[in-house]
Design goal:
By secondary structure, the protein is mainly alpha-helical. Helices cover 57% and strands 7% of the residues. The protein has 3 domains: 129 residues, no CATH class; 102 residues, Arc Repressor Mutant, subunit A (Orthogonal Bundle), CATH 1.10.10; 115 residues, no CATH class. The protein is built from 17 helices and 8 strands. The strands form 3 sheets. A 3-stranded antiparallel sheet has the order 1-3-2. The protein is elongated, with a radius of gyration of 25 Å. InterPro entries: SEC_C_motif. It comes from Alkaliphilus hydrothermalis. It holds the Pfam family SEC-C.
Length: 387
């Protein structure tokens, strides 16, 4: 059994190493300086070229050979760069702007490899090792001016702003509700933003979740939170609670919850954080990390007993009284955490039959990255417990 396990682990390690080598060859493989646009496109696979032509909506060429498709794309890409740039995340756009500012060429930096790979697969830039040994990422001359014109366009920048707003609202909605079908999500986004959005454009934005800075996953049928472990089960729970309306979000709440690394911290969370600090000497950051883990477990349908078991795995509890104290605090967190299975409500709200109306200032403390930290330090959240 041990030999079989070791063999399986070795095969896994070898496969990972092969993928890393393959990825490096794509980014750092030999390439000629000032070569033709067609030759740079020839460095992409047929599947990658097909993906580019789908992204720009090129029809009637799906049966073309690779060579013939390259000729078509070399002609079409310079006039279709706006469509491709709209499907870039903020990191990719930032790199594109740096490239344009530097006449389309930069030395490859390790921290940009992810963005380079995405831009390369879109045909917007290429990379490799030249004859002199230098490694560069560059924009072909045929695309440099068209890209510059798009980046300077007010209409383009307005569209990017709209995309980012939609994504932030989607992140916020999914933080509260956990999972929705694509049609349900579209209806809520339109309702919360208070304006019409082209449905096809919306779906294209959601489909591009692996590039945009999103906190969700799109399966093709529904959209769920990145940290959701049992999406189908929670979706069925939504349907079984047909008489329970979703927690009514305001635009302000959705935008706040849509911020990166957002968590809703309330007084019950702060009580356990203070306990972890005083009894186990955890830093504010470490205590907050534990709270986030507990709240993710709650949202994934773990009952208080399992939360206590998790706690006991990492913290020694010397007395029965202290065990009961910790359990009471965990139950407080459990009852006041917004749960996906309850459509964004807390157990306390459901049991108390609270009026389901939008709350501009809900009882829970909303912690944004630039807000004052709720721990009382007086510092911004991102400089204190949110680091």
């Amino acid at each position: 059994m041990t030999k079989e396990f070791d063999d399986a682990m070795n095969r896994m390690a070898q496969n990972v190493e092969k993928r890393i080598v393959k990825a490096c060859n794509k980014l750092y493989g030999s390439i000629k300086k000032d070569d033709s646009f067609e030759n740079y496109l020839d460095g992409l696979t047929k599947a990658e070229l097909d993906n580019i032509r789908r992204n720009i909506g090129l029809k009637g060429v799906s049966q073309f050979s690779k060579k013939k498709l390259i000729l078509v794309l070399a002609e079409e890409l310079p006039v279709q760069v706006e469509q491709l740039l709209l499907m870039c995340g903020n990191g990719e756009l930032k790199l594109i702007k740096q490239l344009v500012k530097n006449n389309g060429r930069l030395t490859i930096a390790e921290e940009h490899e992810y963005e380079i790979d995405i831009l390369r697969k879109k045909g917007l830039c290429f990379s490799g090792t030249f004859e002199d040994g230098s490694t560069e990422v560059f924009i072909p001359i045929e695309l440099l001016d068209p890209i510059l014109q798009v980046l300077d366009s007010l209409a383009f920048n307005k569209q990017i702003k709209t995309i980012n707003e939609i994504l932030q609202v989607v992140n916020g909605i999914i933080f509260y509700y956990g999972i929705l079908t694509i049609d349900e999500l579209y209806d809520y986004v339109v309702k919360i933003l208070g304006k019409e959005i082209d449905y096809n454009v919306f779906v294209k934005i959601i489909e591009n979740d692996d590039v945009y800075e999103s906190e969700f996953v799109f399966t093709g049928l529904y959209v769920h939170h990145l940290n959701m472990n049992i999406p189908e089960e929670i979706l069925m729970e939504h349907y079984s609670r047909g008489d329970l309306p979703y927690y009514p979000l305001t635009l302000k709440q959705a935008l706040e919850a849509g911020k990166s690394e957002y968590e809703e911290i309330n007084r019950h969370d702060l009580r356990l954080m203070a306990f972890l600090d005083s009894h186990y000497e955890l830093s504010k950051i470490e205590a907050l990390d534990e709270i986030k883990i507990l709240k993710d477990m709650i949202r994934n349908l773990c009952p208080p007993g399992e939360l206590l078991e998790y706690f006991q795995q990492f913290f020694e509890i010397p007395t029965q009284d202290e065990l009961q104290m910790i359990l009471d605090m965990i139950i407080g967190i459990y009852n006041n955490t917004r749960q996906w299975v309850l459509k964004g409500h807390t157990s306390t709200e459901i049991r108390g039959n609270h009026p389901l109306v939008p709350q501009e200032q809900p009882e829970a403390i909303k912690v944004g990255r630039n807000d004052t930290c709720p721990c009382g330090s007086g510092k911004k959240y991102k400089k204190c417990c949110g680091r």
